[in-house]
Amino acid sequence: MKTFLAKKETVQPKWHLIDAEGEVLGRVAVKAANLIRGRHKASYTPSVDTGDFVVIINAEKIVLTGKKEEQNKFMFFSGFVGGESYKTMQQMRDQNPAFILEHAVKGMLPKNRIARQMLTKLRVFAGPTHNHEAQNPVKISV
Fold first, then answer.
1. What's the DSSP call for residue 63?
2. What burial class does residue 25 get, using C-beta atoms within 10 Å of its C-beta: 0-12 exposed, 13-18 middle, 19+ buried?
3. Contact, 11 vs 135, CB < 8 A?
4. CATH no., domain 25-66+99-142
5. Mean pLDDT for all residues in the chain
6. What is the spatial distance between Cα 45 and Cα 37, in angstroms, rounded to a whole number?
7. Cα-atom radius of gyration of the chain, to the nearest Å?
8. H-type helices in the chain, by residue range?
9. Residue 45 to residues 4, 51, 118, Cα–Cα distance (Å)
10. Is 12 left (phi over 0), alpha (psi -120 to 50) or beta?
11. Residue 140: pLDDT band by 50, 70, 90 thresholds?
């Protein structure tokens, strides 16, 4: 019996919709990362992008457990000497709530070229509306 390896040409990506309202950040990120990688498919091949597209709505209403809202910080570096800046989770939620989910999903993907390609299949929206109705995404519960 031969091992089946998926090919890029044979992959048929689907669209999934995740409503993040009231859901825990890590649980939503794990579900999205597995859908983007294609881990839910029988034809999963680590070296081929077999994943699906994921649309996440209501990113601003994501829930964090414990004291992560005050304690967790994001570090940004401008490239210049002394160009480090830090923002708390609350500041990021006010400025760009989609970044929190994108950052969490990115951390759960492998660190290689395929993962950077996979990350383009993630669409995160702060509010309840999105512009991918034409793709008919299937709603997924977390």
1. B
2. buried
3. no
4. 3.90.1180.10
5. 95
6. 9
7. 17
8. 25-37, 68-71, 89-95, 97-108, 113-118
9. 9, 10, 13
10. beta
11. very high
Instruction: Kindly report, residue by residue over 35-87, the tens digit of the pLDDT.
Output: 999 999 999 999 999 999 999 999 999 999 999 999 999 999 999 999 999 99
User: For residue range 80-135, what is the model confidence (pLDDT) as tens digits?
Assistant: 999 999 999 999 999 999 999 999 999 999 999 999 999 999 999 999 999 999 99
Structure tokens, 101 = 């989910």
The DSSP symbol for 137 reads P
Is-contact 37 106, C-beta < 8 A?
Answer: no
Burial-class residue 51 by CB neighbours within 10 Å (0-12, 13-18, 19+): buried
Sorted by where each begins, the domain ranges of the chain are 25-66+99-142
Of the chain, the end-to-end C-alpha distance in Å amounts to 36
Do 29 and 105 meet the contact criterion of CB atoms below 8 Å apart? yes
Contact 49, 12 (CB under 8 A): no
Phi, then psi, of 110 in degrees rounded to 5 = -65, 160
Structure tokens at 90: 């609350």
